[in-house]
Amino acid sequence: MATTLTAGCGSLPRSSFCGSWATGECGMAELSRSVASVRVARPQRSWPRMGNVNEGKGLFAPAVVLVRNIVGRKRFNQLRGKAIALHSQVINEFCKTVGADNKQRQGLIRLAKKNGEKLGFLA
Question: Is residue 9 within 8 Å of 18, Cβ to Cβ?
Fold first, then answer.
């Protein structure tokens, strides 16, 4: 009472599987056509946001916004640039004194920037 499968699967009714894993018979062309017709929607790409993610937040943010409104944006950015450059020089001198290498120095500068964002200095 044993039944045998034919190589072409023509005698079997249509199903999602016919053939064997070893030989890969029957259904490969159909499978490739069905996979090719499936379309996957791409997720909407969010554009990277320029600026501070903590804009307007932080302990010093109100004071920073007040000073920026009083002195003007252009003059404020000049003052901010000078303050950041001065702070970077202090970090560099500290690293020279301690004997830290460039990688550690860059890490300290990045940490100072992150802390400034969190505290609201870059608001």
Answer: yes
Asked if residues 95 and 105 have their Cβ atoms less than 8 Å apart, the reply is: yes
Torsion angle, CA of 78/80/82/85, rounded to 10 degrees? -140
Helical residues (DSSP H) of 1-123, grouped into ranges: 28-36, 61-71, 73-98, 102-119
Please state, as a whole number, how many other Cβ atoms lie within 10 Å of the Cβ of residue 122: 20
Supply 98's token pair: 């301690």
**What percent of the chain clears pLDDT 90, i.e. is strictly above it?**
24
**The predicted structure's pLDDT at residue 29:** 62
Residue type, 66: L
pTM over 0.70: no
The Cα 6–Cα 20 span in angstroms is 11
How many CB atoms lie under 10 A from the CB of residue 79? Answer: 12
Q: Is the pLDDT of residue 74 over 90?
A: yes
